[in-house]
Design brief:
It is a single chain. The chain has nine helices and 13 strands. By secondary structure, the chain is of the alpha/beta class. The strands form three sheets. A five-stranded parallel beta sheet has the order 2-1-3-4-5, with helices on both faces. A five-stranded antiparallel beta sheet has the order 9-8-7-6-13, with helices on one face. Helix 4 runs parallel beside helix 8 and helix 6 crosses helix 8.
Length: about 260
């Protein structure tokens, strides 16, 4: 069964062929781009569901390329970085990458991350217009955790990356309770991390900007010194009937 179309941007021919062959065998359609120039052309294909981007390319800076893509498209992105490129990971997350994976990596791990993101972003076919949704309401916002959407008080969707959504969900499910970075990493990523991983801080910064732009109080997500972060709001959990139809709204520009 076709599981989605992946654009793989990787200049190392051996790695590219290995990854592409593996993903095709797992049911994905894979488009290949060995350079930044080729990626710029192929990314215009509207059937592309997800971009796997090596940020070290011979003719382009992958970070700059991702910034360029993010200005025009909200396509999910997984960046490939080197083991020692913590700065690349942080920059990638700041610019809107949905996830990252470090070389050398297990093909099964990459597949799992791709599937997780596609389920999150494109896997709405079975529940997209479900009659009932579980919604967390706070500070004039509605976080629909069934359809993975955040709406402002006018019903307009605020586009979040997968990581931003998971972080907001965890905070909203533990309102007014300080959560440490360790707890947030465990609850949102379910993967290996290091004590120096700044991904949570980066996601918090991006999330605050989007919530502020949506009219939420600047103090909605608070920093608790020497502890971590908390959602400073009352949260009401409810089930909404006909939510799928109500949630078909115009989307905000993710780059806004």
């Amino acid at each position: 069964m076709q599981q989605g179309t992946i654009l793989l941007v990787e200049d190392d021919a051996a790695i590219r062929e290995l990854v592409a062959s593996y993903l095709r065998a797992e049911g994905f359609r894979v488009e290949e781009a060995p350079t930044g120039a080729a990626a710029r052309v192929r990314i215009q294909d509207p059937t592309i569901d997800l971009l796997v981007l090596d940020i070290r390319l011979p003719d382009a800076d992958g970070i700059d390329l991702m910034r360029e893509i993010r200005q025009n498209l909200s396509i999910p992105i997984i960046i490939i970085t080197g083991n020692d490129s913590a700065m690349d990971r942080v920059l990638g997350l700041e610019l809107g990458a949905d996830d990252y994976i470090c070389k050398p990596f297990e093909l099964r791990e990459l597949k799992a991350r791709i599937r997780s993101i596609l389920r999150r972003v494109h896997g709405l076919a079975g529940i997209e217009l479900a009659d009932t949704a579980e919604v967390l309401t706070f500070a004039g916002l509605q976080l629909d955790i069934t359809h993975r959407r955040l709406l402002d008080n006018s019903g307009v969707e605020i586009l979040l990356t997968g990581g931003e959504h998971e972080l907001l969900r965890v905070l909203a499910e533990h309102p007014k309770r300080p959560l440490s970075r360790d707890q947030l990493l465990d609850l949102t990523r379910s993967r290996e991390w290091t004590p120096f991983d700044r991904s949570i801080d980066v996601l918090i910064g991006r999330l605050r900007s989007k919530l502020k732009a949506a009219g939420a109080p600047a103090t909605l997500v608070k920093t608790v010194r020497n502890v971590g972060y908390l959602l400073a709001a009352e949260v009401v959990r409810r089930r909404v009937v006909g939510a799928g139809r109500e949630l078909e709204r115009d989307r905000r520009n993710p780059a806004a």
